[in-house]
Fold these 3 entries.
Entry 1:
Amino acid sequence: MKREEKQQIIDELTVLFGTEQNYYLADASGLNAAQVSDLRRLCFSKGIQLKVAKNTLISKALQAQTADLSSVDSILKGPTAIFISDDMKAPAKLILDFRKKKTKPELKAAIIGGTDVFIGDNQLETLTKLKTKNELIGEVIGLLQSPAKNVISALQANGGQKIAGLVKTLQSRGE
């Protein structure tokens, strides 16, 4: 491969890593052509991009990022497939689903949100359980609303009798 071709791939990966927030690096070695084709088809159906590049090119593209991703360099050995998705959980779920039939791909690392690094295949289960920012905001809002809902439902439980008693008590204190 010529130097210009390598630089073109590095530039393409640098732009990809700079614009996409979630990408997974996995070892897909040992898969035959039919299995790779099945994996690509599955990725396409789930809206996940799949790219394969040499580790040195991936490393140079990662080094161009503003976030410190130097910990990823140590795991870049052997063939590396890159799974890119807007949904941070989708590649992890896809890898687990595909591995029900095969032993690969095996997760090397996942970069979530452009900065959070998960290293090792043992992180797949954790990655499938991560909550998005919107899910976390929804949970916090639900927790904040819960006490108010409990008070309102308790007050409404006896057809307004408690409210009338509460108003009468407050009036007697004010006199």
Entry 2:
Amino acid sequence: MGLVDEIYGLRVCIDTAPFIYFIEKDQRYLNLLRPVFAEIAAGRIDAITSTITLLEVLILPFKTNNETLAEKYREILLCSDGLTTFEILHEVSEMSSKLRAKYLIRTPDAIQIAVGILHGADTFLTNGVYLKKVDDIKVLILNDFLKV
């Protein structure tokens, strides 16, 4: 089963890495992610993320003064049909603390997963293999869908 088949018709919370791979056209992941983002734009996959993603993706463009790349990230994260970027509310902070305590994961990962859980995501799409241990939401790892 492919990635699109796995998440078709679902609400998926997307971690930062898939956005970076897609926007910056990482050749390892582009053929995997292009159909995912097409299905999101078509409304067949309901995608969410958090403003942590915006924070993380803008670091490189700001460091390199690449306003064009920064604008691409803003456009996809803040203006895309089929994608909602949620702000971090106090409920997210509290759930993130619980996730950190339970799984000993990093704060940004805990925030992303908490947003997914609190906003009804069925799955969390990431490339952080270490997040497989989280069982509060179904975690999908991009590398698991690459053709070997």
Entry 3:
Amino acid sequence: MTARRILIVAFCLIAAGCAALDANESPPRVVPPPPEGKKLVELVKAAFTMAKLSGAPEVSQVRAAHDTQRGDWTFCVKTNSPDDSPKYAVLVANDAILEVRSFVLIDGCDKETYHPIEITDRRSGSAGGHADPAHQSQRRH
């Protein structure tokens, strides 16, 4: 009977110890800053390639990912094609792409405003994205 009492007491102590833990007391998660500048251009270029899109890339604003999404940040990409081209959600964490997928409603890609982004080919130095024609004509003169 003593072994049984010891097991019951041990079980109660363990249960009481676990009940004292509060999930809200965990340290806050540190979220890195959103990708911008050159890093954003690199991510857009990689996502555009992964999605196998043609034409010039257009991108939405970078925004915080929802709790149900993977990663810390998300943005949407599409081609500049005049037809109703597909849009893709890009999920990012630590300046790296976690996933490029056809968007779902929670991604909000269908409600985004897109803008062209210039992607420079490092090997040739030429712009592969939407370039301003005024800048191109100035380079020729």
